[in-house]
Each structure stands twice: as C-alpha cells, then as structure tokens.
Write a structure and sequence with these properties.
The complex is a heterodimer of chains A (677) and B (318).
Chain A lengths: L3 E13 L5 E13 L3 E5 L6 H7 L9 E9 L2 E2 L5 H7 L4 E4 L3 H4 L6 H12 L4 H14 L5 H5 L8 H13 L5 E5 L7 H18 L2 E6 L2 H7 L2 E6 L2 E7 H6 L4 H8 L38 H5 L5 E3 L4 E3 L4 H6 L19 E10 L6 H6 L9 E9 L3 E5 L6 H9 L6 E6 L3 E3 L8 H6 E4 L3 H4 L6 H13 L3 H14 L16 H14 L4 E5 L7 H18 L2 E5 L3 H7 L2 E6 L2 E7 H6 L4 H9 L38 H5 L4 E3 L5 E3 L4 H10 L1
Parallel strand pairs in A: 3-8, 3-9, 6-7, 7-8, 15-20, 15-21, 18-19, 19-20
Antiparallel strand pairs in A: 1-2, 1-4, 4-5, 9-10, 10-12, 11-12, 13-14, 13-16, 16-17, 21-22, 22-24, 23-24
Helix pairs in contact in A: 4-5, 4-7, 5-7, 7-8, 8-24, 18-19, 18-20, 19-20, 20-21
Chain B lengths: L1 H28 L4 H6 L5 H11 L5 H13 L13 H36 L4 H15 L2 H15 L15 H35 L2 H8 L4 H14 L2 H13 L3 H6 L5 H10 L3 H29 L1 H9 L1
Helix pairs in contact in B: 1-14, 5-6, 5-8, 5-11, 6-8, 7-8, 8-10, 8-11, 9-10, 11-14, 13-14
Classes of the chains: A alpha/beta (677), B mainly alpha (318).
Amino acid sequence: MQQVVQEIKNLSIGFTSKKGQQISILKNINTKIKKGETVGIVGESGSGKSTLALAMMGYVKHGLYTISGECLYQSNNILKMKNRELEGIRGRKIAMIPQNAGQSLTPNLKIGYQIDEALKLHTNLKKENRDNKISELLNKVRLPSPEAIAKRYPHELSGGQQQRVAVAMALAGNPDLLLLDEPTTGLDVTTQAHVLELLNFIAKDTGTSMVYVSHDLGAIAQVSDRVIVMYSGEIVLDGPVRNILKNPIHPYTYGLLKSIPKLTLSGLPDSMSGSQPQPGTIKQGCSFYVRCQFAEDKCKINSPELEFVNEFNTSVRCFNHKKLHKQKSIDTSSSKQLIKKIQKNEILDISSVSISYAKQKFLEQLLNKIDDSNPTVKDININIDKGETLALVGESGSGKSTILKSIAGLIKTKDGTIKFDKKKILSNDLKKRDANNLRAIQLIFQNPDESLNPNHTVEEIVSQPLKLYFGLTGEELKQKIIEVLEKVRLGEFYLTRYPRQLSGGEKQRVAVARAFAAKPDIILCDEVTSALDVSVQAAVLNLLQELKEDFGTTYIFVSHDLAVVRAISDRVAVLYQGRLCEIGPSDSVYKFPSHPYTEVLLGAVLEPDPDVKPKLVAEDIVEEKPPEKGCSFQGRCPRILGEICKTNVPPWQIDENGNAIRCHIKINDLKKQQKLN
Amino acid sequence: MLILVLKRILLGLITLFIVSLITFVGVEVLPGDACTTYLEREAYGAALEACYKRLGLDIPAYERYVNWAVGVIQGDFGYSLSGEMKINDVLGPRVKNSLVLASASILIGIPIALLLGIITALWRDKLPDIIISTFTIFSMTIPEFISATLLILIVAIWLEWLPGIVIVPTGASISELLPNIILPVIAISMIMTAHMARMVRSSVIQVMSSDYVQMAILKGVPYWKMVFKHVLPNALLPAINVVALTIAWLLGGVVVTEVVFNYPGLGRLVIESISNRDLPVVQALAIILASIYVVINLIADLLTLMLNPRLKSLQIKK
C-alpha cells in the first residue's frame, strides 16, 4: 500500500444564496492522493475543480464555507486549522502553482525576493546559501541566467518565464504535494508543451505528488497517472488515465472526448447539447440527466452513486455505464466532414500588406506616413475565395489578430492594399469606408463578455446592425431579430435577456447572431471559441459551419488552437513574427508540415491521449521583435542552414498539393528530413 | 526619465500660461474695470484719467498683459486696489496662514485616513469596518459649514474649551495661531479623512482579492507580513494622486471653513477680493492657486512614477 499524502472525506463546500438556501459547489468528494502520484482533475468551468484544489490547501474563498467533511493531511483536518498552523503547511508541505502566474506574482517585488521569501519561511538556510538556492531553483526550471532573472520584476518576464518562476517558488519549500491550477492555460502551444515536460521531469525527479487541475484533456493526458472527472461539483469518474481517456464509461466524459477536435482528423467534432447546470438548480436525479444521450427515466429521479468497476479499476457515477462500455471506445470516424462550397471567385485580396505599431512622429503624422523599416507585420499576400474558411495560426505576437483588425479597418496598414470583391479597394481609414463595405465585413470577438454591451438586451444588441444597414423598424425589425436568433438556435424567449443572464455559449451565439444580422460577405472570427468550454466550443463550431453552408459566407478564422483550426478551415496560413511562413490547404499542411515552424507548432500540440507525446524540436524563446534581415524564424529554427537564413529573405516554394512555404531548404528535402524524425 | 520630467514641467508651464490668459481676458471683458470700481461715482473725467494713468490702464490690453506677466515671473503681482498695498504684502501672510492650516490638517488627516482605510479593508464587513465606515460616510455627507458650526456650538459654546472663531491679526505668528486653528483643522480633516479613507479602503480590498495576494497566502506568508509587503505598497500607489488632489484642494483654500471660522487664509482672501472687486488680487490668486495644483500634481505623478516598478522600467526602455 502506497503512502497517502492527502485524503479527502465526504467534502462538501458551498454558499448561502440570497434566499437563504444552502447551495453546494462541491458535493461529497472522496479521494486519496498517494505519494508520488499525479492526479489530474478535469472538468469544465463551474465544475468545482478549483474550489477542490484550494480546499486541499485549507483555503476556502470569501463567501464560501465548508458544509461537511474534511481534508486530511497527515491525519489532521487542514480545513479546521488555525492560520498559524496553516502557514507551516502552505508552501512547505503543500504548494500551489497558480493559473495565471503573471497576476500571481506581486508586481512591486523582485523575482529573487519572492523566491527568497518562500525560502526564508520554509527552510533554515542562511542568507548566502539562500542566494545559491535561488539560482539553483531558477536553473532547475530552466530559466536562462538566473542571477539576472532574480533581479527583475515580474512584468519584465514573458508568460512562460513567469510560469517557470511560479514553479520555482513552489519548489522552494520542498513540498510533498504540488497543486497546479490550470498552470498552462494562457500559454502558447510550444511554451505549454515545454512547461508540462518540465513538470513531468520534476515529478519524477523529486517524487512529489501532484494534483493537476485543468479543463484541457490534452494537458491532463500528458501528466497524469490517474484522472478525476468532475461535473457540477461531483466526481463522476475516477480511474487510471488510459482507462478514462480511451474507455470512458461515463456519458459526460464520453461526450467531452468526442467534442474535442483532433489534430489527426479533419471535420467537425460532435457537440454535446446544453451546458452545465448552475449550482443549486438540480433538485433530484442525476446532474447530467438533461444533457445525457443515454438517460433513462430513473436517472431523472434517482441520483447515481459512485460505483467501483473492477474491470477498469475505475469509479463511475452512472446507472448505465455497462451499456456505454458496449459502445466501445471512442468512435472517431463519425466526425462530420465539411461540405465545401468554395467558388473560384476571389472575394478578398490582401496584397503586400505591412502594418506597423511604431509611434508616428509629428511630421509623419502630417504627411500621413509611417517610417518603420521593420514593421510588426510585413509582406502579407493572401487571396481568399468566396465561401472559403481561411485560418490564420501562430503563437501570440505572430500578428494574426493584427491582420484581422486591419481587414476590419481598426488598424491602419502601412503599405499594401486590401481589395474587396475584386475591384473595391478598402480604405485603411475606417471613417472613409462606405456603409456597404462596413456591412460586408463583420467581426466576432474572442470574449463575448466584453464584446456585448452589458446594458443592452439581446433584442437591442441584434437590432443594431439591422437598423443601421437595412433601416428596419417596428414589427418588421422584431420579426427579423427573431429570425436571426432562431438561426443561431436562440428563440424569441431570449429577446428581453441581458448578457449576464446568458451562459458563455449563449453569449457567443448572440455575438454570432449580431454578425450575421448584417448579412456580411466576410466574417472575421478572432479566437471565437477560446473563452468557451470544450463541449460548448464544439457546438459553436458546428453552428458557424451550418451558417456558412446556408449563407455562403467567407470566414477568416484566427486561433492559437491548431486542432480547432484543423476542424473548421479549408486553408491555413501559418504566421511567425508577422511574416507568412506557410499557406496551403488544411489537409496538406497538417499531413506534411513542410515549414520548420509549422513542424514545431504541430509537434507541440497536446492530444488527449497519454500515448501520443508532443515532439519538442525548438526552444520556446520569446522574441520581442522580428529580425531585421533574413528569415523571420531564424532565431528558433531547428533546421537552420547558416548564414543565408540570417541575411536573405527565403523564397516561396510550392509543392504539388498547393502548399506554399517560405524556406531556403528545398521543399522535398524538408519532407524527407521530417519523415526521418 | 529626465526628459519625461522636463516634459511634465513644460506642460505645467503651458497650463499656467493658459490660466493667466483666461483670467486676464476674463477680467478685461467684464463690464467696468479696476478704476471704475475703485472710484465708484467719481469715475469720470480727470479723476478717472488720473487713476488709469496711475494703475497703468491707459495702455493697450496686450501690452498690459505682457507687463503684468513679466512682473509675475519676477514675483511681483503689482498693486491691490483697496488700500493700494503691494499685492505681495497682502498675499504673503495669507499664504503662510493657509500653509499652516493645510499642513496641520495634512499631518493629522493623512495618517488617520490611511489607518482607517486599512483597518476597514482588513476587517471588511466586520464590526470595526461597520462602525468606521458609518462614521466616514456620515462625515462625508454632512456639508462642512454644518459640521463646522456644530463644532463651534459644542466645543466652543457649550464646553468652552477652545475659541470659536479665530481673532488674530493676519500677520500673527505661528505660536499665536496654534490654539486657534484646532477647530478649523478638525472641521477640514473630517471631510478629507473620510474621503481618503474610503479611497484607501476600496484600493486595499481590491488588492486583497488579487491573485498575487491569494498566492502569498498559499505560499504560507504570515498575515501581517503579507499585508505590509504584498498588499500595502500596491494598494497605496493609486492613493498618491488622490492625496495630491486633496492637498491642492486644501491649499486652494477651504473657502467655507475659513469663512465660518473667520480664518485669515487664502480662501477668505478670495471671497473678500471678489466682493471688493479687487481685480488685481483676484488675478494673482488665480495664478497662485493654479500653480499650486500644477506643482502638487506634478510631484504626485513623479512619485508614482518612481514607486511603480512597472512604469519605471517602461520609461527606461524608451
């Protein structure tokens, strides 16, 4: 029997509603964390996973309280401890690595001080030894020149570096248990893969137990030995990682896995209807009942207990798990293929576009010119056909959103032209665009919470473009609004709702409805699904695809999530530091990633399968500025040739599939090299 | 950094120039001028001419502006009408008195405000917060002339502890002023403290709920160490600008309070010179008050810049 580090018994945490009801956020959680084990806790937002992780440190957020149960650390209930006792455990025995390291490091204190603080509290080292230890820790998390890093303030580091500092700080006290709350969410794919690899290494190296909380099954698959799936405050599935991800015997996990787009598959993932119930709304029966495709009458009345299934060494909360098991492992062939209706009819022509963020000097402002030899975005040439979905991918800082904004007219271009519908040149000044051009191009933003006016009802939000572009009024307007809302599967019922009364998925549907109300020719989608849960993401992707098939709209889709891009796009453009690296049909880009950068990006993607490991071929350095000369990717390229890459801009090469890349290495040589690896 | 400071100073000077223009033009376009006001019914013929000549009002307006501006730059505000004193002599003691009043209020008010703000934030929604917050909201909403009058009624008239109004000459020394200013200081700091305490409270609460404070708790940092190292430096930074505005407001003369207590400060001078239509003094006061605002805000901005590592390194990079 392995030693147990922490045991959670019958834990319920909740709050008292305004009506005085007690509402549980966590319901009767029972689990044990063993020594040296990494447990992944997975669930969508609102499933209670973060509350559980914080409870493991004896921390309950303002407004919440423990209803029953205990969290035992060395047979002491840490939820009942005094602050003095907790201070001895936190950081020393149990340490936390937070979700957003950038906001979790105190802004006015230097990195070195913040790590030193943990060392002072939790070790007996003397000052000079502590200085060495700081360097040692920063080295361990693979930060370059630790002495220099220690003297910096948190904001002077990149996101990946901040996350590493947080890891170093957590390791300072030599804890028995590390709690990680979404530690890689918000990082670029390559950085994320590197941080996970580091965590895996640390777990092995130090023998620390880890609890890894995430909504990302891909990350969970890479680090966990055991996975706990949470839904609506309950554990619904608990077992070894392979059994959970390859043979999910709970309908929620099954649906969740099916709704994740996969890198190796084209076509849209299946979506799960509905969303997680609000805490306190489920009075009886299984909390997953309304969304379950295997539900029976008894599920509505009786709540299933967590039941241990010997065959899989897994606990499951479902009456029908045997039936689900017969469905066999994840049936992957059912992904919906895209129906392609691309006409060979160019709708948007972006030629030699450069965009600069350099501040205009006074004289330049007068002459309406920008003098910047090394602009943020340079030399972008893309033609888009009517009905096509073009995806722009790249890490943060690759200029993908910048290009989108310049098409929308929100940022001025420095050079080059953007032509709409063959002849009409779109002015780079938004004020000079006429109403019809404005109507033709609509934007959907990443975060519907910020893009919808919180003081407007859904009716007012959707009516704006209808009034503005079509001059509709009265009954006609109302009918049209309802029609548009029904298109996005929201009915008349939603007219009087405010954004705050909608779920994340519903809000994004309203944003989609607002864009479509203008009957646009082109819709620019800026990370439209990245703020959504996986199951909702699949539903929004499916909706976008259906609308496109109905209206023949053209999409330009910006995303950092390569699997999502694979699912929805016809053609992909890969960007690095504001320069195009590769552009081609999705199928061939994903099958033969010819450009070294595409290879790096695709290699770092995390699949929800513990047996598919990411390939880390390049360092995850963050470059602040594109290089002055030569290839944009020279700084990180694993296949760099030498001087030529640093001096000459690489030429375009096209292969037989229509895949164009910009590289000094011959395209066929690249493919051969990639096959060898 | 140096360039930024110079830029801010230049901006301040431009502001002052505009203020001086506006007051000058404002005074010009008002019906009547210094002489008609001064001479009243005799404002005609030779007397008026003589007055114009004496005050230098017989030359074109732009020339007068230039002369006046040159004088101001050299620290000479010209002559007042009532009593025909040098304005510098009128202003000097008033500025000193106002400074005494303001610094006393600041020295007492700011520490109390910080303390109250921090206490209410750390014991949020608990008894100390409820009591103090009730008090601060109360003293914020009561207008100063009422609280000042009540103070006089209770402390001076009923209890007879302190003088109710200030009956010292304008040129009184600080030791003469001291017992007299206690009540005005209390009246002024009540409002000021309440405002600032509310500000500090919300700022501290905001920082307390931030991710980095949660992280510090989860790191095992003892409570008070966390408060002093992780919370206060970040929470008090935005308070600097509010404090600066309050100080400027104080020096600018808490007009009502000064009038209620008959205190010979700048605020009362403003009222007096406006009612006497002593336009040169009004002009001088406008410039002085504007300069106080500009200088104090400049100091506050520079302080914020120096204390906030985020802004500091931003400037160095550029």
